[in-house]
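Sharing a chain and its predicted structure for anyone who wants a worked example. Both blocks are below, sequence first, tokens second.
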Amino acid sequence: MHRVVCPGSFDPVTNGHLDIIGRASRLYDEVVVAVLMNVSKKSLFAVDERIDMLREVTKQYGNVSIEKFHGLLVDFCKARGIPMIVKGLRAVSDFDYELQMAQMNHSLAEIETTFMATNPLYSFLSSSLVKEIAGYGGDVSGLVPELVRDRLTERLAEVRPDR
């Protein structure tokens, strides 16, 4: 069985993330989406909220599961017998960083990394950019699934009631 992990913070999940997850689901038997719990980073959505959104927007894929993790991704992979990481690349700058991570992960645990070029429609897209646009009242339709857009709007209204 060919199992892979697609890691990230997914705060929030974007259509770019879903593009990579969906394409990976067609190439591999099982895709585990690993949601990073980073206590040192201030997230807009709690990890369980991100997991709920991911479960909802990936339910069309019968071979995708969602889990949370903290610490080293290679430890998560080793504990679950997952031999490969799938990462999306938007630009050359992503490659520079991700190549170093891939080499380190291989050095630490012989975990392989596969890079998938992002669909050009999403090459500019990031969760941070989506939050910034939505925070200023911009329309993020087409950048995130409708469910995520609605929850993002609700959350921003809670934390920024003046907008």
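Comments welcome. Residues 92-109 form the longest helix (18 residues).
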